[in-house]
C-alpha cells in the first residue's frame, strides 16, 4: 500500500482540493475578525476545486451513470458558498488592505461594487444624504485600491497592525482621518461583526 503510486495520487488530489476548505473552516472558527478575508478564502477554495478537477476525475474513476468526484465536490461546496460569499464578506474583501492585488484581479468588479453599495446602505441606514455617502464611498474605494489620496504613504501599507490581523484599527488610523465614509466602513467590516 505504501508504494502504491496510484493511491498516493488519489490522496494528493483529494488533499489539494480540500485543504483550502480546512483553512476556511479554521478561519471561521478562529474567533478573530474574519470578514475581511472570508470572501478571499472562498475564492481560494473554488480555485483549488477547479485546479484539482482533472486529477480528481482521473484517479477516482466512476461509472458512466455516476457523477464525477469533481462534480460531487463542487455540489457539496455549492451547498455552502452562498452563505459564505455574502454582501458583508464582499465588502470586507474590497476594504481589506492586505488584498489589494486580489481585489484588482477579481473578474466581476461590478458585482463587488453593487454588493458593497448595498451593504454601505445598511451601515448608513437612516442617513439623509445617502447619495453623498455612496459617492464618497465609491470615489474613496478607488483611491484606496490605487493607494492614492490619503493612502499614498508607503509606510502605512507596512504597518504591523496588518500582519497582526487588526485591519479595523489600521482603518481607524489611516482611513478615517481623510475619508469619513470609507474609514467607517473599513472599521466596521474589518472588525468583529456583531448582532
Short description:
This protein has 195 residues and is an all-alpha fold. The protein is 68% helix and 0% strand.
Structure description:
This protein is mainly α. It has two domains: 5-85, no CATH class; 109-190, no CATH class. Helices cover 68% and strands 0% of the residues. It contains eleven helices and no strands. It has helices at 5-28, 35-51, 53-59, 69-84, 87-94, 100-105, 109-123, 130-145, 160-163, 167-174, 180-190. The longest helix is centred in the N-terminal third of the chain and has 24 residues, at 5-28. The mean pLDDT is 89.
The major pleated sheet works out as: none
**Average predicted confidence as pLDDT:** 89
Q: What string, H for helix and E for strand, traces the elements in order?
A: HHHHHHHHHHH
Provide a count of the helices: 11
* Percent strand: under 5%
Count of distinct structural domains: 2
For the termini, the CA-CA separation is: 51 Å
Overall, the morphology is: elongated
Class from secondary-structure proportions: mainly alpha
The Cα radius of gyration reads 20 Å
Tell how many strands the DSSP assignment holds: 0
Poorly predicted ranges (pLDDT <50, ≥5 residues)? none
Kindly state the percentage of residues in helix: 55-70%
Output the keywords:
elongated, 11 helices, mainly alpha, 2 domains, 195 residues
SSE layout and pairing:
Blueprint: H1 5-28, H2 35-51, H3 53-59, H4 69-84, H5 87-94, H6 100-105, H7 109-123, H8 130-145, H9 160-163, H10 167-174, H11 180-190
Helix pairs in contact: 1-2, 1-3, 2-4, 2-5, 5-7, 5-11, 7-8, 10-11
Amino acid at each position: 500500500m505504501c508504494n502504491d503510486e496510484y493511491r498516493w495520487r488519489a490522496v494528493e488530489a483529494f488533499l489539494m482540493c480540500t485543504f483550502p476548505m480546512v483553512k476556511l473552516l479554521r478561519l471561521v472558527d478562529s474567533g478573530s475578525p474574519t470578514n475581511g478575508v472570508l470572501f478571499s478564502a472562498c475564492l481560494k477554495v473554488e480555485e483549488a476545486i477547479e485546479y484539482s478537477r482533472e486529477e480528481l476525475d482521473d484517479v477516482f474513476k466512476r461509472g458512466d451513470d455516476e457523477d464525477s468526484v469533481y462534480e460531487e465536490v463542487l455540489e457539496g461546496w455549492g451547498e455552502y458558498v452562498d452563505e459564505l460569499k455574502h454582501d458583508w464578506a464582499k465588502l470586507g474583501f474590497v476594504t481589506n488592505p492586505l488584498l489589494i492585488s486580489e481585489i484588482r484581479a477579481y473578474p466581476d468588479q461590478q458585482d463587488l461594487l453593487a454588493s458593497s453599495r448595498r451593504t454601505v446602505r445598511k451601515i448608513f441606514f437612516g442617513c439623509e444624504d445617502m447619495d453623498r455617502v455612496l459617492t464618497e464611498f465609491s470615489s474613496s474605494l478607488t483611491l484606496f485600491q490605487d493607494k492614492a489620496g490619503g493612502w499614498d504613504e508607503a509606510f502605512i501599507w507596512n504597518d504591523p497592525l496588518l500582519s497582526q490581523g487588526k485591519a479595523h484599527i489600521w482603518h481607524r488610523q489611516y482611513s478615517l482621518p481623510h475619508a469619513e465614509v470609507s474609514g467607517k466602513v473599513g472599521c466596521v467590516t474589518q472588525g468583529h461583526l456583531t448582532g
